[in-house]
Amino acid sequence: MKNESHAELAHALWPDAKQAPVKLLECRHCGRRNRVQVSRAILDPHHCECGACGEPLFLAPGEPLTGIASSAYEHPLDRTTLAALKGIPGFPTLIRWVMTQLGERSLRLLNLSSAVLCGDDQFPELVALLERSRQSLDLGLRPTLFLSESPHINAATFGSEEPWVMIHSGLLDQLDDTEVVSVMGHELGHMHAEHGLYRMVAVVMASGTQLLGTVGQVLSFPLQKALYKWMRCSELTADRAGLLACRDLGASLHVLMKLAGGSRPGITRRTKMQLAPFIRQARTLAKLEEDNWFDGLLATLMTMDSSHPFVAWRVMHLLEWVEHGNYLEILAGHYERAKRPAAA
Ligand SMILES: [Zn+2]
Ligand SMILES: [Zn+2]
């Protein structure tokens, strides 16, 4: 079923058009600052031109974000929680232990033995979607793609030397191509921001603590909690990468809404999922967390043992970045670049 038109999406996001923020953006061609309406720039960036030189204000669809550094879109919560995690006594030892016990090679072997390896002669259409994401983010690394049979909307990435992306088949049933590009961009964002190693540690810890016995579990408890907290925050960075890869806010929001409610035939046959009420739901959550410390605490407690944050929380943070963060600056070509551009 077709997603909303620009006008419908704009109305879902900003029911009162006057509330849509305005930004000053510098033209990358002539340097003139342009006053742009965030709603128009986000929903229809390819029709925004500089008032002085007439050149497009934003990069063309799919144009690579040349040399972009992951720090350009890293969520501050991701940065601070990872710094806190690294500061925990014993963490460097744990990293060394995980690397010696379980290199990324063994996880790759697991995929080779249980999932389908994609390539030129196997699901080339899926490889092309990954390539679209990779080129938009101008990533030098070329991860291997695996497809795994599972009814759930899910994907994962691991590894740093020979990285790979795994997507679940259920995701392909429920998402359109642009939404798949957003999910793949999300995974590539984890890779670009070098989340792989720490995420691998979390996976090993989750299975390893069962083998350690009660004492080991008690000792590793604070570390596991800190690791999970960082993992939840790292999702916010990856969501931004997903949006930068597909450059379609509606698609990124639909992915999150489908993660929360699914988009199975039983639903789509009867009705159409509406974005506007879901955005209202996320904004209600933001307000509750802001106004009432108890709801904020409850939300924290409820997600403490989870590696993924609440979906509405992710929507809330993505919208916040799009409206008030540097999303549009990045699309206008103003962003932090990696010191050494990644080699192709
Ligand atoms: Zn200009
Ligand atoms: Zn993720």
Automatic annotation (TrEMBL):
Which cofactors, if any, are listed as required? Answer: Zn(2+)
Biological process terms from the Gene Ontology for this record are: proteolysis
Q: Which residues form the Peptidase M48 domain?
A: 122-321
CDD domains the UniProt entry points to? M48_Ste24p_like
> Mind listing the UniProt keywords for this protein, alphabetically?
Cell membrane, Hydrolase, Membrane, Metal-binding, Metalloprotease, Protease, Transmembrane, Transmembrane helix, Zinc
Q: Which Pfam families does this UniProt record tie to the protein? A: Peptidase_M48
* Cofactor remark from the record: Binds 1 zinc ion per subunit.
- What would you give as a GO molecular function for this chain, any one? metal ion binding
| Similarity comment: family membership | Belongs to the peptidase M48 family.
Q: What is this protein's record name?
A: Zn-dependent protease
**What is the taxonomic lineage of the source species?**
Bacteria, Pseudomonadati, Myxococcota, Myxococcia, Myxococcales
